# Entry
Amino acid sequence: MPLAVVTFEPHPREYFMPDLAPFRLMNASARAHRLEKLGVDLLAELPFDAHLAGLSAEAFARDILSEGLGLRHVVVGADFCFGQGRRGTATMLRTFGARFGFDVTIADLLTAETGAVSSTAIRASLSEGRPRDAAQMLGHWHRIEGPVLHGDKRGRVLGYPTANMSLEGLHVPKLGVYAVLVDVLDGPHRGTFRGVANLGIRPMFARKTPNLETFLFDFKGDLYGCQLSVGLVEYLRGEMRFDGLDALIAQMDQDSAAARAALATS
# Structure
């Protein structure tokens, strides 16, 4: 049987609490890309709307999983909840599966050296500037994925041209400078590179909305419009305000050297 993943878009929490601060670790395209790399054959991305939110646990198992998708075996975590009001449990799904023609495996929850593995714990690690702890729980570097956008182009004047990416809709890790691994996913420069990135608001230039600006080591070329996947490897320092451009460039030189050293052992 093909390996499939069933998920929702938007995330149910976004549907019920649209004013909630961004919490997602991946946008939909990054999630699809990660699942493809893991060998998933089919991705069923169900539109989460009033109809789906209103289905009882039994109706979800019957109408969506059995009759709609034709699933024959379902694997869920031990804390899985489903149906209107999250009233369905993993044990209930096993009962429904026996009734509607699919088997159910209930997977034990995972633990790591840092404790229980959960999206909450991963977000906490990222918020505290601990990307390696987040990676231990994720099974890969935490990645920010999206198109390269046009910025203010100050980096090229400073000798550090950067690829700018939006963080819209995503949980924002601790602001500062990171050593990063970068995958250029399409275009003529497709490949893997090392680099240093600033995640933040650039206090020296009074930007209000945080974004990600990545400088790729030993790279020349135009990345505008290309899809990038930037993996956070090591938190190097917090954001700083500088007295002038000379001080900023000197610090960028130091950050690049620190990033190269951190990536040499990653």
Residues 142-264 form a domain with the Elongation Factor Tu (Ef-tu); domain 3 fold (CATH 2.40.30.30).
